[in-house]
Design brief:
Number of helices: 6
Strand order of the largest sheet: 3-4-2-1-5
Structural class: alpha/beta
Distance between the termini: 16 Å
Largest sheet: 5 strands, mixed
Order of helices and strands: HEHHEEEHEEEHH
Oligomer: single chain
Number of domains: 1
Strand content: 15-25%
Length: about 160
């Protein structure tokens, strides 16, 4: 079941057949849309930043929740939509969004504590939340398939074919 859903998401992202609302949460070094113009970043931050920009180029709506650069830095960004099309939001606002699951796809970068259902004290996933998230993802995935016109044969092909 999950393999078929993975194929659908990969196909949609690659081809831009359907615009998705994507949330990227990166709990790491501060960065914003112009950070790479003024300094280097770690690999996780660079990956999150570039992924967000590329997804927007493919027609998706991207909200990047991250630690934004402070005012004293040349790459300071207060938040909001940048010229690259990504909406940058302070990381402290992420928990409210995570609780409502108002995105088609959420990507957690570097900090697993940002994943809904993770108990930071235990370092383990609360399976009740995992199962709810899986069921919600299945419903959203089915809705995307219907809206995009993807046929069931294409949806069911095995991963790697």
């Amino acid at each position: 079941m999950f393999a078929a859903q993975t194929v659908i998401v990969e196909d949609i992202i690659k081809t831009g057949e359907l615009s998705m609302d994507i949330v990227i949460a990166c709990g790491a070094m501060p960065f914003g849309p112009t950070t790479l113009d003024t300094q280097s970043l770690g690999g996780s931050e660079t990956a999150a930043l570039m992924l967000g920009k590329e997804l927007v180029k493919r027609g998706h709506n991207v909200k990047m929740f991250c630690n934004l650069p402070p005012r004293e830095r040349p790459d300071h960004w207060p938040g909001g939509k940048a010229s690259d099309g990504v909406v940058y939001v302070p990381l402290e606002h992420y928990q409210g969004v995570a609780a409502t699951a108002q995105s088609d796809l959420t990507i957690i970068v570097r900090d697993p504590r940002l994943a809904p259902g993770l108990d930071p004290e235990e370092g383990a996933v609360d399976t009740r939340h995992r199962d709810e998230a899986r069921d919600a993802a299945r419903v959203r995935s089915d809705g995307m398939v219907r809206r995009s016109g993807l046929d069931r044969q294409r949806m069911a092909r095995p991963t790697g074919s």
